[in-house]
Amino acid sequence: MKIYIDGKFCNEKNAKVSVFDHGLLYGDGIFEGIRAYNGRVFKLKEHIDRLFYSAKAILLTIPISHREVMDAVTATCRANNLRDGYIRLLVTRGIGTLGLNPNRCKNPSVIVIADKIQLYPKEVYEKGMDIITVATTRNLHNAVNPAIKSLNYLNNILAKIEANNGGCEEAIMLNSEGYVAECTGDNIFLVKGNQLFTPPLSAGALYGITRNVVMDLGECFRLAGFRA
């Protein structure tokens, strides 16, 4: 597998970051998870738009342009002959010191990994799965805003651990007020009658690219008179 790191491709064995990278030390960075289907990257522009929004929210300057990030993603897919798979795009604050001060990180890093992924066992997609509601709540907006896709995903991982301990693959996360926000790694939807519902962004749901596509399709079906 070829991995893109700061303008160069390297193999898995040599794909390394410094132990002083603030992305490793503090989760100081951002990412996007993007799917590729039949040789095309799904909603690439929208994903890169969201990456830049996240970067702006944490005052992180991405060292290459929007177009160059898009080109890096597609080039990584081509380098790995990936037609159907998953792309993990990361931007870390870069190498700094053991202190928290991000101003000591002078050169942010851009990393692109393109590989296969299966989030859940195959039978889950065919038969559905049991999920539970967990005690770990979604991040507060005035703490680590859930709209930021940061490298610090511990909130979701703790909820995932609860799900696993409960014998489930996935869990529903509530916000601090007890309202449904999202799952540990997915947006959540409810179909009732001929309407499609999903928690609002204000509840702590991620501004999902696929979420928007699903809601748009749901509205089209509703207007056309289709029922679930």
Write up what this structure looks like:
- This protein has about 230 residues and is an alpha+beta fold.
- It contains six helices and eleven strands.
- Helices cover about 30% and strands about 25% of the residues.
- It has a six-stranded antiparallel beta sheet. A three-stranded mixed beta sheet has the order 7-8-9, with helices on one face.
- Strand 3 and strand 4 (about 40) form a beta hairpin.
- The mean pLDDT is about 90.
Task: Please summarize what this structure is.
The protein is an alpha+beta fold.
Number of continuous helical runs: 6
**What do the pLDDT scores average to?**
92
What string gives the helices and strands in order? EEHEEHHEEHEHEEEEH
Global outline: globular
Q: What Rg is obtained from the alpha carbons, in whole angstroms?
A: 19 Å
Structural class: alpha+beta
Q: Please outline the major beta sheet.
A: 6 strands, antiparallel
- Please estimate the helix content: 25-40%
Q: Which stretches are poorly predicted, pLDDT < 50 over at least 5 residues?
A: none
Describe the oligomeric state of these chains in a short phrase: single chain
Strand order of the largest sheet: 2-1-6-5-3-4
Number of strands: 11
| Strand fraction | 15-25%
Could you give the distance between the termini?
Answer: 42 Å
Question: Which properties best describe this structure?
Answer:
single chain; 228 residues; alpha+beta; 6-stranded antiparallel sheet; 3-stranded mixed sheet; 6 helices; 11 strands
Set out the fold topology.
Blueprint: E1 2-5, E2 8-11, H1 22-26, E3 29-37, E4 40-41, H2 44-57, H3 66-79, E5 85-92, E6 109-115, H4 122-127, E7 131-133, H5 154-165, E8 170-174, E9 180-183, E10 190-192, E11 195-197, H6 209-224
Parallel strand pairs: 7-8
Antiparallel strand pairs: 1-2, 1-6, 3-4, 3-5, 5-6, 8-9, 10-11
